[in-house]
Structures are given as structure tokens and as C-alpha cells.
Design goal:
Number of domains: 2
Number of strands: 13
Strand content: 15-25%
CATH topology of the largest domain: D-Maltodextrin-Binding Protein, domain 2
Order of helices and strands: HHHEEHEHHEEEHEEEEHEHEEH
Distance between the termini: 55 Å
CATH architecture of the largest domain: 3-Layer(aba) Sandwich
Oligomer: single chain
Helix content: 25-40%
Length: 299
């Protein structure tokens, strides 16, 4: 009697090819050869009676049937992973894989310490970290968690606050020698203000201050604007090109070393939150539960 699910290895190959982007990359990930990967895909398409992938010498793309099959098989494989992890967690060591997306600010300056603690506690869990300022689609892109900045809109996601990060205004000593320091917020308009353009709107992200116990949003304008990566404004400020607003956890080391100086410290006090988000529909594995506990209550 033939086995009903003897094609599961071919399904896993299909998913790996899509996630890795090519037959060669999938072969490396699965410790095999591109020809073996190609034969597995051919068997799967023959079994289903439909084409899943459009393959040329230079590109790889999903057909409509392939997109539908990918979505369903990812969910099925995730359920199998969940079942295995649940059993393994009951028996002792937590294992499995987590996919996490984080913005550059948090990903470079805050997350490494949290991941180090997590790795020390759960060495058998494999973490795939995506550092990007693009808001990934957790369900469609198969992410367990994402870290987001700012006040989150009601999107049906579960959000757990990680911290309120204080903001600070900075520039380099060289800029101070060349242009001086602004006396007050009104004088900022005569200075070189390094702005970050929001990817969603293309408009400058407002600088946020606290003045006389009142929250104040101030729209900076500049001939030099940064897109995609907010850390670029810090790099430009350090090079003497202007004033920028960033998180204190990013600027603190530079302030202590004297490569940046604080501007208008009397306007400090505002902060922006960072939150860990995940979908309520996704089954919570032992590894995911361990990660939430670790990052929300770090040692």
C-alpha cells in the first residue's frame, strides 16, 4: 500500500525554494544538489497536475496555483513544527526556529543584548533575524514576531510594549564650531536639520519635544533628507552635516565619547515606544513563549 504523505519531503523542498529564492540556494540549505531539488519539484507538480513555479535561467516566480499551495503548505508545516515543539518542550529542552523582524534602530542597538540572553537560555532554538525598516506582513511572510516603533494602529495584532525610548537632539562639535548652537526651538529653522522621510508618506518625520510640560511636534526642513534607514541621520550628524533627533540609546555612547553633543537639552522628555507584535491566529510554540518571556523580562 502506498503511503499517503510520502511526498512531504517534496513539499518541504518547494517551500524552501520559494523562501531561498533559487534552486541553488535551496540546495545549499538542504545539503543537496540543484538537480535533486529540480526533480523534487517536478514530482510535486506531476502529483498535483499543475505548475507551481515559473522557472527560467535567471528568474523564479510563483504561479497563481503556486501562491495558493505555498500559503496552505506553510500553514500545514507550521502545525507539524508546533506539534513537535510542544512535545519536546514537555520533555525538557526547547527547540525550533523563530523568524523575527526588527527596524534598524532597535535591531542594531537594543535587540542584540536580548538575543544574547535568549541564546544563553535556549541554545537549541534557531533564530532568523530580519533587520529592515519595512513593515513586514507577519502572516504572509511567515514571521513569528516583529518589533515596531511608535503608537500602533489597531491592526488585529497583539502588541506587548518593550520600552519607551527617550529622544535626544544632537550634532557634532565640528558643526557647533561652524554654525553655533540654536538658542531655542524657533532658532532651529535657521540650522541644518537632518530629516528622515517616512516610507509610508514620503514626508518628514516630525521632531518631538517637551516644553513646559507640553508635548510639541516640530516639522524639520532640510536640503539633505534620509530615506529608508533612520540611522543615516545619526551618521550624517556625526560627520558635521547638521542636527538630528534620535533615540538616546543610539546617541549615548557618542555623547560620552564627545563625537556628538546634545542640542537644546531643556526640550528633552519625549519618548517613543517599541513593541513586540505577533498575530493572535498563529499557534504559540514553546520557543515563541520562551522568547516573549525573555524579552519582556530580561535579566
Amino acid at each position: 500500500m502506498s503511503r499517503k504523505y510520502d511526498h512531504l519531503s517534496d513539499v518541504e523542498t518547494f517551500v524552501t525554494v520559494v523562501e531561498r529564492g533559487s534552486l541553488t540556494a535551496a540546495a545549499v540549505a538542504m545539503s543537496t544538489t540543484p538537480s535533486v531539488i529540480s526533480r523534487a519539484l517536478a514530482r510535486l507538480e506531476a502529483r498535483l497536475g499543475t505548475q507551481l513555479l515559473r522557472r527560467t535561467t535567471r528568474s523564479l516566480g510563483l504561479t497563481d496555483a503556486g501562491r495558493l499551495y505555498l500559503e496552505q503548505t506553510r500553514a500545514a508545516l507550521s502545525l507539524i513544527d508546533d506539534a513537535e515543539r510542544a512535545v519536546q518542550a514537555d520533555g525538557g529542552e526547547v527547540t525550533g526556529r523563530l523568524r523575527i523582524s526588527a527596524p534598524t534602530t532597535f535591531g542594531h542597538y537594543r535587540l542584540p543584548a536580548l538575543l544574547r540572553q535568549f541564546a544563553e537560555r535556549y541554545p537549541a532554538v534557531r533564530v532568523e533575524l530580519n533587520i529592515t525598516n519595512r513593515n513586514v506582513d507577519l502572516a504572509a511572510e511567515n514571521f513569528d514576531f516583529a518589533i515596531r516603533q511608535g503608537v500602533l494602529k489597531d491592526s488585529g495584532m497583539i502588541a506587548r510594549k518593550l520600552e519607551d525610548a527617550q529622544l535626544v537632539l544632537v550634532c557634532s562639535p565640528e558643526y557647533v564650531q561652524r554654525r553655533g548652537l540654536p538658542r531655542d526651538i524657533d532658532a532651529l529653522s535657521t540650522h541644518d536639520c537632518l530629516t528622515f522621510l517616512l516610507p509610508s508618506t514620503g514626508r518628514s518625520f516630525p521632531w518631538q519635544f517637551m516644553r513646559a510640560d507640553e508635548e510639541l511636534d516640530w516639522p524639520p526642513e532640510s536640503a539633505l533628507q534620509v530615506t529608508d534607514d533612520a540611522l543615516g541621520t545619526v551618521t550624517l550628524a556625526e560627520a558635521g552635516l547638521g542636527i538630528c533627533q534620535t533615540f538616546r540609546f543610539i546617541a549615548q555612547d557618542r555623547l560620552e565619547r564627545g563625537v556628538l553633543v546634545e542640542v537644546l537639552p531643556e526640550l528633552k522628555g519625549r519618548s517613543r515606544p517599541f513593541s513586540l507584535i505577533y498575530t493572535p491566529q498563529r499557534r504559540m510554540t514553546a520557543a515563541a513563549r520562551a522568547f516573549i518571556t525573555c524579552v519582556l523580562a530580561p535579566a
